[in-house]
Amino acid sequence: MRQAGVRQAYMMRWFFLTVSLISAVGSVVVFWGGGLLVLRGAGFTIGTMVAFTAYLGMLYGPLSALTNARMDLATSSSASSGSSRSSTCLLRSRS
Questions:
Q1: In this predicted model, which residue has the larger pLDDT, 16 or 31?
Q2: CA dihedral 60, 66, 67, 69 (to 10 degrees)
Q3: Could you report the per-residue pLDDT of 29-88, keeping only the tens digit for each?
Q4: Is the dihedral of CA 13, 19, 20, 21 positive or negative?
Q5: Beta-carbon contacts of residue 37 (< 8 Å; ≥ 6 apart)
Q6: How many Å apart are CA 60 and CA 52, to the nearest integer?
Q7: pLDDT value of position 32
Q8: Residue 95 pLDDT grade (very low, low, confident, very high; cuts 50, 70, 90)
Q9: Spatial contact of 19 and 61, defined as CB atoms under 8 Å apart
Q10: Does the global pTM surpass 0.70?
Q11: What was the pLDDT predicted at 28?
Q12: What DSSP line would sit under 9-30, residue for residue?
């Protein structure tokens, strides 16, 4: 059971790293490519770059939330089980 938890944590770490890397590369492509198009006067404006950046935020925001949701669930689950154990110990010590 412990081995499965370690493996899952390892996989989640790589998944989070991959999503973060893709997000960073996407931003670089938008700023680099958009900046070149703005400087060349190819019909691409600064406002268009801002719009594309906002679109990236709308795309990567939910992906990031999904990767963090698993961590939040695991943290809240361990916190709730820990608090129930401590309240059980407190109740037993009073008796």
A1: 31
A2: 140
A3: 989 998 898 899 888 888 988 898 899 889 888 877 777 776 666 666 555 555 555 555
A4: positive
A5: 43, 44
A6: 12
A7: 92
A8: low
A9: no
A10: no
A11: 92
A12: HHHHHHHHHHHHHHHHHHHHHH
Q: 41-53: b or e for each residue (b if 16 or more CB lie within 10 Å)?
A: eeebeeeebeebe
Residue 41: DSSP 8-state: T
**Contact predicate 60/19, CB 8 Å:** yes
- Would you state the pLDDT for residue 87? 52
CB atoms within 10 A of CB 62: 9
Among candidate residues 59, 49, 58, the one with its CA nearest the CA of residue 29 = 49
